[in-house]
Amino acid sequence: MSTADSSASHTSAEIATQPATWARAAKSLPLHTDALPRRGERVAVIGCGTSWFMAQAYAVLRESGGHGETDAFAASEFPYRDGYDRVLAITRSGTTTEVLDVLRRVKGTIPTGAITADPETPVMDAADAIAVLDFADEESVVQTRFATTVLALLRAHLEAEDALPTGVRPLAEAIQDAERAVTVPLAAEVLGAEQFTFLGTGWTYGLALEAGLKMREAAGAWTEAYPAMEYRHGPISITGPGRVAWIFGALPDGLAEDIRSVGGTMTAESGGSSDGGLDPLADLIRAQRLAVALAESRGYDPDKPRNLTRSVVLENSPA
Q: What are phi and psi for residue 183, nearest 5 degrees?
């Protein structure tokens, strides 16, 4: 067992349940299809923070799988333009001001759905249809299992419609990988690093963004995230001894050599559908565990991150 497994935090306990919550989400899919996009629809997916990054990952999966044009927006940046057939909101708390503002403003003009963890919140009235994943709700302020369980549900939906992109594993395989990811030891050079750059390609870029956010939220760590091919266009300048480049998904040709040549540490445990590595979503579990381990090594409580609350509710927001 690695040092990341000794935590008694709610966050660590919730991280460990992800294989089970993903499986439960897949099993419950028939209960939630009214809230989810239909094949061929032009869809806007909205969220804030972690939920926005899951929206980005899903948008690429859906569109590249041929399911329909899909855009992802931070809820505060929703463009309110014509042409969308559906808006899908991701909101763990169901109370986030920016998400509720969008749903209320478009209500009656565009069909809306929402995925939430709490059936006792305003989103239940703000959206036309709701998928409630209350079994994936969390005590921790920092999101882990709810976010990944949402993406697991959405992957299961695409898979049921034969719309998973080439190279993306069936969810059943991702769940098996998640069972490995909750216990596999974290390397000492990763646990001891001072800086982390997360990289992804296509749908895994959203995972890279989320990994960076997790590290900042829980541990106050110096982290960045970029599309993998952008790494050479500037970000590699900060790489060196004691600094990690973490790649989600396929490793671009020559990148490993570039990282080693400047003294950096590379971790690339996820990849294609048949290379033996972890599913990228399962690899995100490793990053979550790292965030907890780093937080606790710095004397922080991962359940109570600095300057954060469970939901951002703004005063005097328009209804």
A: -125, -20
Tokens read off for 58: 């899903």
Tokens for 231, please give them: 């790494």
Q: Determine the straight-line distance between the first and last CA of the chain, rounded to whole angstroms.
A: 50
Q: Name the nearest CA neighbour of 245 among 230, 256, 233.
A: 256
What per-residue confidence (pLDDT) applies to 7? 64
User: How do residues 118-165 score in pLDDT, each as one tens digit?
Assistant: 999 999 999 999 999 999 999 888 899 999 999 999 999 999 999 899
**Bridge partners, residue 114, by sequence:** 89, 130
Of the candidates 204, 239, 203, 234, the one whose C-alpha atom is nearest the C-alpha of residue 222 is 239
pLDDT of residue 154: 98
From residue 215, give the alpha-carbon distance in Å to each of 101, 104, 196, 260, 281.
Answer: 29, 33, 9, 23, 16
C-alpha closest to that of 74 among 215, 213, 219, 247 = 213
Mean pLDDT on 169-195: 96
Please, are residues 4 and 293 in contact by the beta-carbon 8 Å criterion? yes
* Spatial separation of the C-alpha atoms in residues 122 and 100, rounded to whole Å: 8
For CA atoms 64, 68, 74, 78, the dihedral sign is: positive
Which strands sit side by side in the sheet containing 195-200, from one edge to the other? 222-227, 195-200, 243-248, 265-267
Let me know: does 63 contact 158? Beta carbons within 8 Å.
no
Residue 245 bridge partners (DSSP): 197, 266
Distance CA 254, CA 272 (A): 17
Q: What CA–CA distance (Å, rounded) separates 91 from 174?
A: 23
> Rounded to an integer, what distance in angstroms lies between the CA atom of residue 203 and that of residue 190?
24
